[in-house]
UniProtKB/TrEMBL annotation:
Residues 7-174 form the N-acetyltransferase domain. The keyword Lyase does not apply. The lineage of its organism: Bacteria, Bacillati, Actinomycetota, Actinomycetes, Kitasatosporales. Keywords: Acyltransferase, Transferase. CDD domains: NAT_SF. This is GNAT family N-acetyltransferase. It comes from Streptomyces desertarenae. Transmembrane segments: none annotated.
Amino acid sequence: MTIAAGLDLRHYTHDDLPEIRQTLLDVHADAYADRLDDPFVQRFPWFVDHWGGNPGFSCLIGYDDGEPVGYAYGAPATPGREWWREFLDPAPEASRTFSLSELMVRPRWRKTGASRLLHHGLLARRDEDLAVLSVDVRRPKVQALYESWGYRKVGERQPFADSPLFAVMLTELPLPD
């Protein structure tokens, strides 16, 4: 297995979505191969287009010898409308937020450090004060991984009727090394 630190990391923006869209869909299909019959999982192309349609969209894809391993992407939150706000009163004074929508690694490269490399690599380029993400509450190991990276759970929400219940997790930027 290739060591994650040797990945070729490539950054993409909103303008690159037509070029990378199929790669994002292919990695997702591999990562969720055991749940492709789930209606919420099937809506993933809509989420790619929704997030990629944001002018501030930022994506980092890792490649191993030209093969996509995984990616992390998101976009800046609209000031004052960040979806973590309902859980914190008062909100932190420094509250410009980057919303991390997806962090996905194909099964073959899991447990190699690729997820950390992609996550940290994407957020290292950000100048916001905070990063927020959501994680399925039925995935406590994934939540624990994010906690090990400095996130804290601030609440739970179900953003769509067919979505799982998610833990809303927040961290300050820049991330500690």
